[in-house]
TrEMBL record:
Gene for this chain: yejB
Source domain of life: Bacteria
Membrane-traversing stretches: 9-30, 132-151, 163-189, 219-242, 277-304, 324-350
Protein name: Inner membrane ABC transporter permease protein YejB
UniProt organism field: Ruegeria meonggei
Subcellular location per the Swiss-Prot or TrEMBL entry: Cell inner membrane; Cell membrane
UniProt keyword terms in alphabetical order: Cell inner membrane, Cell membrane, Membrane, Transmembrane, Transmembrane helix, Transport
The keyword Cell division appears for this protein: no
GO biological process, one term: transmembrane transport
Topology in membrane: Multi-pass membrane protein
Xref: PANTHER family: INNER MEMBRANE ABC TRANSPORTER, INNER MEMBRANE ABC TRANSPORTER PERMEASE PROTEIN YEJB
Amino acid sequence: MGAYILRRLLLVIPTLLGIMIVNFTLVQFVPGGPIEQILAQMQGEGDVFAGFAGGEGAPAEETFGSDSEYIGARGLPKEFIEDLEKEFGFDKPPLERFLTMMGNYMTLDFGQSYFRSISVIDLVLEKMPVSISLGLWSTLIAYLVSIPLGIRKAIKDGSTFDTWTSGAIIVAYAIPGFLFAILLLVLFAGGSYWQIFPLRGLTSDNWDSLSLFGKIADYAWHIALPIIALTISAFATLTLLTKNSFLDEIKKQYVMTARAKGLSESKVLYGHVFRNAMLIVIAGFPAVFIGVFFGGSIIIETIFSLDGLGRLGFEAAVARDYPVIFGTLFIFGLMGLVVGIISDLMYVVVDPRIDFEKREG
C-alpha cells in the first residue's frame, strides 16, 4: 500500500501543473483583464465588458494611440498605462509570469489580491467559515438521513413505503436548489409570509455578547435555511446508492449462509451486510464533502448573502483578480487531488481486503 500511495502522491505534481497550465493559457485569450477593468472604471464605464458589447464609444483617434490594446485607455498617458502593467506584472511575457507564479506557489506565497489590500491566504481564511459550515453540515445531514432511509428502502423493497419515498426524493432532486432557496426566503425570511429566519449572514451583530448556548442557537438560526436549500437535492443520489448497495449484498451467497445458520435478520443486516454495502458510500465521503464544499454553494451564498469561497471565486472571476483566481485554483486543486488519495485509503479502512497494488499489477 505504501508504494501505491507514493505513486499517487508523485502523480499529484504533474496533474496539478497541468491544471495550472491549462487555466493560465485559457486566461491569456479571455478579454477584459484587470488593467482593462481599472481603465473602464476610471472612464466611468463601470465594467469593461460594456466595451465589447458594440456600444457607442470614442472614435479610434481619441484613444491613447491607434495601437492601444486597452479599450478603456481613452485619453490616458502612455506612462500611466506602463506603470499599471509593471505593477500587475504584465510587462513580462506570459511564460515568465507563469514560472514566477508557480515558483512563488512552491514557497506558499500566493500574493495579494489586485483589488483588495489583503493576501490571498488571508482572504481564503476569512471566507472559510461560511464554506465549511455549508459543506460540512449539508454533507453530514445528507448522510445521516440518506443511509438509514436507503437501508429501510432496501429492506422494504417494492412496498408502499419504498414507492412513496422514492417519489418524494425524486421530486426533491428535481427541484433546483436556488429555486428552493428563494421559496424558503419568501416563506420564512420575511418575503411575503413569516419572519422566522434571518435574511443574511452567518451570525447576528451581537454575537460576541451572547453566551455559549446563545451562540450555538444563533449560528443554527442563521444557517438553517441555507443548509436546507443546499441539502434538498443531495438525498436522492445517496439514498438510492445506499439502497442498491444493500440489495446487491442481500442477494449474495454469504447472506443466505448467515441466515441458514440461524442468525437474526438484524444480525445479518448490520453484522454482515452493512460493512460491505457501505463501502462505496462511506469511502466516498471525503470526495462528496469537497464537492459540496467548493462547488455547490455559489448560488446559495449569493441568495442568502453569505460571504464564502464560492462567492469569492465568482467575484474574482468577474473582476479578473488573477492572484485570487489562480491562488484558490492551486489550493483547491491540490486539496482535491489529496482527497482523492484519502478516498482510496478509506476503502482500505472500511474493507482491509482491498489491495490497490495487486489491482494495478
